[in-house]
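#help-structures
NK: newbie question, is this the right format to request a structure? protein is Beta-arabinofuranosyltransferase RAY1-like isoform X2
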Amino acid sequence: MKALQIGLWSVWVSGILLIALSLYATQRLPLSKNPIFNHGSSSDLGTPKITIFTAPTPFTGSLGTKQSLAILSWLALSPQITVILFSQHPSASSFATAFGSRVLVEPDIDFTFLGVPFFHSMVAKSRAFPSDIYVLMDTESILLPDFVSALNYAHELDNDWFLFAYPRNVSNFPFYLDEDGKYWLKEDGKRIRIQELQDTLGSSWQWNCCEGRMMIAWNNGELPLHHGVLPPFLYGRGVHNHWLIDEALSSGLRFVFDASWAISIFALDDSRRWSNGLVKSSIVSNIEKGSWEYDGNSHLAALYGSSSLHKIHYSGVMKLLKCDGQYLLINTTEDILHPYAYKKMSLWKGSIGKCWRSKKTLPCVSGTKKSQNGMSGCFLKDRLVPATTLKFPFSLESLLSITADKNRTVVLAVAGYSYKDMLMSWVCRLRRLRITNFLVCALDYETYQFSIMQGLPVFSDPSAPSNISFNDCHFGTKCFQRVTKVKSRMVLKILKLGYNVLLSDVDVYWFRNPLPLLSSFDPAILAVQSDEYNQTGPINLPRRLNSGFYFARSNGPTIAALGKVVRHAATSGLSEQPSFYDTLCGKGGSTRKGDNRCVEPETNLSIHFLDRNLFPNGAYLGLWERNNATSACKKLGCIVLHNNWISGRMKKLQRQVLSGLWDYDISTRMCLMCSENKLTRNFGT
């Protein structure tokens, strides 16, 4: 019995020694057993799901080394992180595929004609993704593990919150991740601990105050970020982040704090040459004051919002710090600990007042105060007063070269300010169809300025009639008669510059792209919509040519014939539409050929009246009056449907909205997002 007790005692002692040796060995493991983040560990079970949204830069070019390194650094932090790339550029799909299933492409947001995404559309689209925390940041910024720990801390706060953080600019980042994305390596291939990496960069970094490089994050809570509407800011072009911070602070709906000292974000300086030489980024790190994009954002900031930008005192914003291994929320100006932090401080021994003013904590807080002075330029204290007028740095010729497709074809719309909402619905529909080769001719300065702020390729017509009330400029009015003549003049001007033109009124709804069919016609044909409403009989009867939708090629006969139309309209007291028919088909239809053609005798240009089942006007078959206009048109095979044959702008607007053939949210100034569009790597699926 005694021997048995001695044996059991020996086993117990041996077990204790083995456990002790195991713990000692664990502490003495080489660096190779200490990854950035232990994927699949039990610590992940309570980690909130984090979705990082970003717009790859350059917006219209191929992506490479810097973006890859940044995204790899994000994915390495936690398996709970997903990355969404907002992009419509073809290269984004193959770029995302290389990272696996946790990096996805989302093209269904609003972009300008230059490929720059809209900030308000990015924020709105983020809500469609299930996540605990939403993050919006630059594609060329490295994240380190304190990003996850800081967000975990924020996630446990009692209130809905919104945080922001400035990155630290580094001109030299001599580290890269291993193939598995687990360890940071030096240039010589040796592994480096995170603390050593931070210490190495500690003496060389400076605050990066570029708005496009800021990080913002918020929890998936019940409260909105701010009161009111988020304006259509151009992402990465200045003002938008600070505007949102200002509005969030002044609204008081969420707890707003600065996490710049708690989250290590390193912005990769564009001047650095990368070791493999694959990328030389064209992103502009700072938007120069006076650029039209910055001016546009400044205009929007002045027009929208309840707060005045210069009244926000960022020095008084609560700051998240990590001192002596604990997170603190402190107003460094007044040395006040935020009440939200009290629950966290209960783990500390002693009173709250003593613990956060301890010998280990005070240097951290004082260091934050000193470094805050270096961030003074980040807060835009000297706010720009936006220019009194907005003006594109693009001529008509340069816009044509930017927007025209490979066949040198553009789609032209002409609009005045009272039709701005219908213009935007038309634009949104073309964006949905991935049609980018369109131009807008603004009939007044209000439309020109509005179009610039909506990111449209717009130009103004200096010869457009002035002193016209656009509030009631509908069919049959004197205003309408004068305005329509601008369209044929502009088409003729563009044809002479060597570009084909599809002229489309903004009340024409596009079910699909008509250009493949229209481009298949012989070059000596002018394809036009018929305005005939009778279901049987000829569709080329007198004055049944609709000049609100036609396709003209840039060639001698077409230019000559359109020139005759413009000259005829200039001497007519009517709109341009009768001039089209009388000039091209002869008075009373004297040059009609069959039931759907005319031939202009001097130029021998053929005028082809398009099939009304494919291109119906507003009176044909009563399509607009059907219970389901979309279903009726799809059965018919419609390519477009014209919202004409109705008197009055408001009646026309009401008919189109009620029919469901409307793609623009007037209240948010955004295209209606396609709910049936699912996240995809390939835009065609």
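mod (FA): yep, format's fine, and the tokens are attached above. The chain has two domains: 50-271+291-339, 399-612.
NK: thank you!
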